[in-house]
Please model this.
Amino acid sequence: MAKPKVAFFDFASCEGCQLSAIDLAPEQMLDLLNVVDIVEFREAISEKAAKYDIALIEGSITRDCDVPRLQDIRNRSKVLVAFGACAHTGGINALKNFQKKEDYQKAVYPTDPLKYETTVTRAISEVVQVDAFIPGCPINTMEFVRIVKNLVLGKRPDIPDYSVCVECKKNENICVYEKGMHCLGPVIRAGCDAKCPSNGGYCYGCRGTVTKPNLHAQKDVMQKYNLTFDQMTDQFKLFLQRNREVFKNAG
Ligand code: SF4
Ligand code: SF4
Ligand code: SF4
Model:
């Protein structure tokens, strides 16, 4: 029986999530290729296909001219997956949404600011229907293979829907708030094994929020450490574009 056809596409992104997919450990790659055929993947092969069982979309939409291309991929795909934070939440491309268009145009192309088209950054789900997402900046390769296998079997993607704090506490870390830092762990989706707080950093939200963020927990943390909504949002703009409401409601 033919294996499901998988294709990769990119929009505004650093292509790091696609590189992570190319750079799978040999056993992960075998695991993946046992269940799917990769029929289109600009970074890895020159073949193309007309239809896809699963289309993995990396990157966000930052130009109106990208919309028809994305819609065309959507029309040719049975299942469309937002692949990585840029696609899932807008990612770091959405930083520009906090600024005036003329300001970032001038900052990036000072001699010819109108040379390239640019619009407000949108996540893929803000433009077409998205059936699943693979969070993270970049994606976690084990999770990527697991989710593709889930989709092939017609199952719901197996992604944690509890907060990074759960994994952080399991790792017996001292909470970074106790060290005078701030962290988005209470409302961000686990699945990275609390990578940043476990390695001397803090969670800045690359995996997006859980489905029902615990606003009470976030509010308690903000109150305990005398933080305002503006202080939290200023520090966490990197991946915060679509999460601002969480803090607004908690504040
Ligand atoms: S999510 Fe991160 S690693 Fe992936 S394409 Fe976007 S910026 Fe690059
Ligand atoms: S707030 Fe951050 S550092 Fe503190 S427990 Fe949660 S994830 Fe860990
Ligand atoms: S701890 Fe937060 S920022 Fe770091 S990888 Fe996990 S979700 Fe992303």
Notes: Strands lie at 5-10, 37-41, 52-58, 77-83, 132-134. The pocket of iron/sulfur cluster (ligand 2) is lined by residues 164-165, 168-169, 173, 175-177, 183, 185-186, 194, 197, 202-203 (CB under 6 Å). The longest helix spans residues 141-152. Residues 183 and 202 are 5 Å apart (CA to CA).
